[in-house]
Amino acid sequence: MSISKEQIEQVAYLARIQISDAEKSALESKLSSILDMVDELQAADTDGITPMAHPLDATQRLRPDEVTEPNEREKFQKLAPEAENGLYLVPRVVE
Amino acid sequence: MQWETVIGLEVHVQLATQSKIFSGASTNYGAEPNTQACAIDLAMPGMLPVLNEGAVRMAVKFGLAVNADIAHRSVFDRKNYFYADLPKGYQISQMYYPIVGRGEVSINLPDNSTRPVGIHHAHMEEDAGKSLHEDFHGQTGIDLNRAGTPLLEIVSEPDMRSAEQAAAYLRKIHSIVTYLGISDGDMSQGSMRCDCNVSVRPVGQEEFGTRTEIKNVNSFRFVEKAINTEAERQIELIEDGGTVEQETRLYDADRNETRSMRTKEFANDYRYFPDPDLLPVEIDDDYINDVRGELPELPDEKQARFTRDYGLSEADAAPLVQNQAQADYFETVAKASGDPRQAANWIMGELARLMNQNDITIDQCPVSAESLATLMGRIQDGTISTKIAKQVFEALWNGEGTTDEIIENQGLKQVSDSGEIESLVDQVLSENPEMVEDYLGEEVAKKQKKKFNALVGQVMKASQGKANPAQVNDILQSKLSKN
Question: Where are the transmembrane segments (chain A) (predicted)?
Answer without folding.
Answer: none
